[in-house]
Write a structure and sequence with these properties.
Elements: E1 10-15, E2 20-23, E3 26-28, H1 35-46, E4 50-55, E5 67-70, H2 74-84, E6 90-93, E7 100-102, E8 122-124, H3 128-135, E9 140-147, H4 151-161, E10 166-171, E11 183-184, E12 186-190, E13 196-197, E14 201-202, H5 203-218
Parallel strand pairs: 1-4, 1-6, 4-5, 6-9, 9-10
Antiparallel strand pairs: 2-3, 7-8, 10-12, 11-14, 12-13
Helix pairs in contact: 1-5
The structure holds cytidine-5'-monophosphate.
């Protein structure tokens, strides 16, 4: 029997960057490394939680002892997160989800165009955090907000608009913070507490603080 403050809790975490196909060999993605989401999965497991990691693109190995489901596109991630919602106690959307996808990916590899230009039509992806926010019952829902300006104001707006319970805001314009780095500097926003500014530190330490804070409010 596992011990820890998240014992008997099912924590579902999305991580990495989604992949949106253009044709069978090409895709649109982003610079997410998956490090923050994987660190959260590890921290939750350390605290005794049953963890499901839903992983989009990353080069990280599957964490030992953690159920890891691999998906690629935002639409697949949406289906997977909605499927796990009923059994989840905590859901953390740490994945970098592409806001748009290619409307109709080509069935065959695209050839060079005689005209010298190629137009891709992008259509909007579902906002998964907002979908989960609209569907959730007792689940505690956590999102991330990476901003380059007006960090706290934008993050606060997202918290309310997407009906999340906690939002982790990070200023990605700062050095050594966020995408790809091992360190991060975040501010934790919740519905009913003052924002908590955490100092720059490695992602696993941040993940442990976040899981600690979540356990305090859900227990
Ligand atoms: O609106 P923005 O992309 O900044 O919101 C970030 C948060 O929303 C993250 O938690 C991210 O995982 C989630 N998100 C989502 N679906 C999208 C875009 C973002 O779930 N299409």
């Amino acid at each position: 029997q596992k011990q820890g403050v998240l014992k008997n809790k099912h924590v579902v975490i999305s991580a990495g960057g989604t992949i949106e196909p253009i044709d069978p060999v090409r895709y649109i993605s982003n610079r997410s490394s998956g490090k923050m989401g994987y660190a959260l999965a590890k921290a939750a497991a350390e605290q005794g939680a049953q963890v499901t990691l839903v992983s989009a693109s990353t080069t990280l190995p599957d964490p030992i002892g953690i159920k890891t489901i691999h998906i690629q596109s935002a639409q697949d991630l949406s289906k997977q997160m909605i499927a796990t919602l009923p059994t989840a106690d905590v859901i953390i959307m740490a994945a970098a989800v592409s806001d748009y996808r290619v409307g109709e990916p080509a069935v065959n590899k695209l050839k060079k165009q005689a005209s010298g230009e190629l137009t891709l039509t992008l259509v909007e992806n579902p906002d998964i955090l907002a979908q989960l926010g609209a569907m959730k019952k007792e689940q505690y829902l956590v999102g991330f907000a990476a901003e380059t300006q007006n960090l706290l104001a934008y993050a606060q707006t997202k918290l309310v608009k997407k009906n999340a319970d906690m939002l982790i805001a990070n200023d990605v314009s700062k050095h050594q913070v966020g995408f790809g780095y091992d360190t991060n500097q975040v501010t934790i926003l919740t519905k009913d507490q003052e924002p908590e500014v955490l100092p720059l530190q490695d992602k696993l330490s941040i993940a442990r603080k976040i899981m600690q804070k979540i356990s305090e409010v859900i227990n």
